[in-house]
Design a protein that fits this description.
alpha+beta; eight-stranded antiparallel β-barrel
């Protein structure tokens, strides 16, 4: 997500979601489009741009670049980020701001793109984001919580189906390379056969909403 309270590291938990209560969905979410200029073995070099509020209806299956162009004049934030591999909810992440116009032009010119709508919500003592993926990764939804230190003793909302913090396929850099739409049916069968999993070693408490 962004730089955390412990320098260039992020501490997060991520969950696969199939449906979210209507009151948790923003009527004007942020649009995020990002390009991965390197994505290999958990290491990534990413450029991101963001439009703060999207009030017009989007075609969730539209090409990522087409979605970007629809809202290019609304972009007000950009950053370049270097990431390392995830290790039990902790990942090296160094993010630095860019001029939004520079970020926009970089994404236009290359990289493997991911687009998503981001909904922000406060649940209990934690701020969560719910990412609704677009383009080749539709209809994937991921709920994510980040703290300034290891995310332990977390109250997990009941709409979180299974934890994907440690699943490399669900990392954004992996989704840029191998979009969810190409393996969504296989994942559904896998989830039905194996059932949900949660990282109990991190002190999970499942909250029944």
């Amino acid at each position: 997500m962004s730089d955390s309270g412990s320098g260039d590291f992020e501490f997060e938990r991520r969950f696969f979601v199939t449906g979210v209560p209507a009151h948790l969905v923003d009527d004007a979410p942020s649009l995020i489009v990002q390009s991965y200029f390197l994505a290999d073995g958990g290491f990534a070099l990413r450029v991101r741009v963001q439009a703060p509020t999207v009030r017009t209806a989007l075609d969730p299956t539209a090409d990522e670049l087409a979605l970007l162009e629809q809202h290019a004049d609304e972009i007000d934030f950009s950053a370049v980020t270097v990431k390392g591999p995830m290790n039990e909810g902790t990942r090296y992440e160094a993010e630095r701001s860019l001029d939004p116009l520079v970020g926009l032009e970089l994404i236009r010119r290359g990289g493997l793109r991911v687009a998503k709508l981001r909904h922000a919500v406060w649940l209990g003592e934690d701020g969560w984001v719910i990412d609704e993926f677009l383009g080749a990764n539709a209809p994937l939804m991921i709920a994510e919580v980040e703290r300034g230190g290891p995310v332990t003793d977390l109250a997990i909302p009941s709409f979180c189906v299974t934890e994907v913090t440690a699943d490399p396929r669900m990392a954004n850099d992996s989704l840029a390379r191998t979009p969810f739409s190409g393996w969504a049916q296989d994942y559904a069968r896998e989830l039905a056969a194996q059932g949900p999993t949660f990282l109990d070693g991190l002190g999970v408490n499942r909250r029944q909403d």
